[in-house]
Design goal:
CATH topology of the largest domain in chain B: Rossmann fold
Number of helices of chain B: 11
Number of helices of chain A: 19
CATH superfamily of the largest domain in chain B: P-loop containing nucleotide triphosphate hydrolases
Number of strands of chain A: 6
Order of helices and strands of chain B: EEEHEEHEHHHEHEHEEHEHEEHEH
Distance between the termini of chain A: 24 Å
Largest interface: A-B, 22 and 32 residues
CATH architecture of the largest domain in chain B: 3-Layer(aba) Sandwich
Strand content of chain B: 25-35%
Oligomer: heterodimer
Structural class of chain A: alpha/beta
Number of strands of chain B: 14
Radius of gyration of chain A: 29 Å
Chain lengths: ~425, ~300
Amino acid sequence: MLRILLAKDLRRAWRNPLPWLINLALPLCITALIGLVFGGTSDSGALGRIRFAVVDEDKTVLSDFLRGAANQREGGKYLEPVLLDREEAMRQILDDKLSAAVIIPTNFMRNYLTGRAPVSLELIKNPAESIHPAVLEELLGAVVTAMNAVARNFQSEFPDWQAVIEGHGDYHEVSRLIDRAGDKLKAARKYVNPPLVMYDKDTDSDHAAGDAPKTGEMKSGPAKPGASKSGPSFNIFGYLLVGMAAMFLLFLAGNGMADLYRELRLHTFERYHTLQQRLLPFVAGKVAFAVVMLLLCSAVMLGGGGLIFRIHWQQPLALAALAIGYACFAAGLFAFLVAVMPDERRAAVLNNIAGMLLGLAGGCAFPPDQLPAFMRQHLTPLLPSYWFVNTARNLQAGVAGVAWGPVTLELIGLGVVLTGLAVFLFHRRFKTGLRA
Amino acid sequence: MSLLRVQGLFKAFGAIRAVDDVSFEVRPGEIYGLLGPNGAGKTTTISMISGLLKSDAGEVFVVGEPFWNDPQRAKRIMGVVPQELAIYEELTGRENLEFWGRMAGLSSAEAKSRAAELLSALTLTDRAKDAVKTYSGGMKRRINLGCALLHRPQLLLLDEPTVGIDPQARLNILEFIRGLCASGTAILYTTHYLEEAETLCQRIGIIDHGRLLAEGTLSELQERLGGDRVFVLEADFKDASPDAWNGFHQRFRVIQKSERQLVVAAIGQRDPSECLKDLLNLPIRVENVMLKRPSLNDVFLQLTGRDLRE
């Protein structure tokens, strides 16, 4: 019975594919647009170089050192600093040519060496971008932390260093200072390299190598030389595409299950009800149809999108299982909503809102960390869209021990329950006189 | 034994009594017509008989068994043709028939052969592979009818199956229905077309405002008007009142009176020429008198005071 119903719906969709094609093309286009805005065009598929301005208002040796350090060695691979004045930097940010501007304020060196004020650097972010400025903010945070650490350990030497920098010291004094600093560094070396405390985020490749510490564990003691194996590189398209796919799969499910309204409007649902068959196969058939269509669309979006954006899916089978679970949930949810809402036009609006809310609150459109605190802590974790997106992203990030199996089963279970509720509600509506 | 028996069926939607104490029965090989204007309660009655709606009171018996005792069994015996086209426009005629055949419980092979049979009977074999959306209104109606016949139902419920199609297509469908009736299928046929009820149905029930006002064969219904003829007088009846005419109501029954027309039937077995003479002697200047067989519209007019064609 399900096979016959499914074949009928697939035939109908095949002969009128436009709505499905539009919904398929949209997430790919949006992902491409967002990805290109965030500089996802590099061949490596990584984040790309971050172009930012350095505005040196202090113009001292220390500010020169900071300015120059930004594009040295590893920094040069990811950072592209340009030296500008404040006005020009602001203008270029507004023109969307820079991701941010780092301002080294006047008296920066004097304040630092005299210890009058904590280290402070100003960061002006480009509001049109989110990832690059956020990366720069993290980097600046690290620089400030490091400078504060130096200040705490060398505070007593700073007046002498300041005198030397300002040209008051002689060579003997400079030599003596270097000697003292060298002795201190020598004594601190065993604490600094390798670090006494480190944070190690475990990946599946570590597991493969037979090393299985807990995820995100704080470890004490020297790091093992072989344990620094890096996880999969971050691909912004991969991150975005999973979210976009999750959101648009909801819309596609809404579109698929809206076919129940068409069946009501065409009176074919009514005709079916005059036959000896029960309601369950009809609704279940429609859910099966929506699931099949969602899986085809997932394959196009994630598979095709992966090829287009050069995303290497870390665990394709686990991702496929998750997609099956998510498709079941989405189809069940919209079957339930159709059963609850008799008015097709109202339902079209409400279904879109429901899809949008689930997508946004579930962290599909942007990182869940950026959601309001209340939502992030109390609402988002309850949403099946978040279960799917978060698990898929963790799989892609190579996080070890991602529980994709239980999440898949939960999503399928939820889909089955919602379908059952939809059948019950349709049964009640038919009893009271269902009309399209 | 009747295939379908409806007993005191009642359904209200709020304050509106859509169907009010309706009772009738349909026998094997009979076409029973339910005649009434739009909103009379025909579709609601069919919906209750087919199990789409639950009645507030009354009972539907299919082959002697209450419908709700075993709805699945009753539905296997029935075929329902809804008033609206209930077919998939993207699918071909053949695919539609095969699909509904499978839904009606036929095997794939049975559905295929029965679909071919019906396509031929409905003269649609040439267009069998075309999508239904390319069909004319009459062809769609024929496919809509065919979809209810795949499992050879003993009882067929037809809800205004000829609405909105041209006369030729209507004749084709009516001919097909006569064929079904001849093969022993019991048919409940709702319509608001007088001619269809007169020419197609063996027995007719007249329904209005949810109430079954009269039922019987065409001649039985005509008999209610006092025989097989009525007189139509044309004159200026604006200021005339039949009540003032001496002994008029003892000899004639007024069916309808308007400013220009008076329709009457003779009471008792009287000679038409005598009736005619009587009418011409009325104290009014009659411009024209017409003698005709009473139609269902005249019966409806007499029962409701309204013209069914209005």
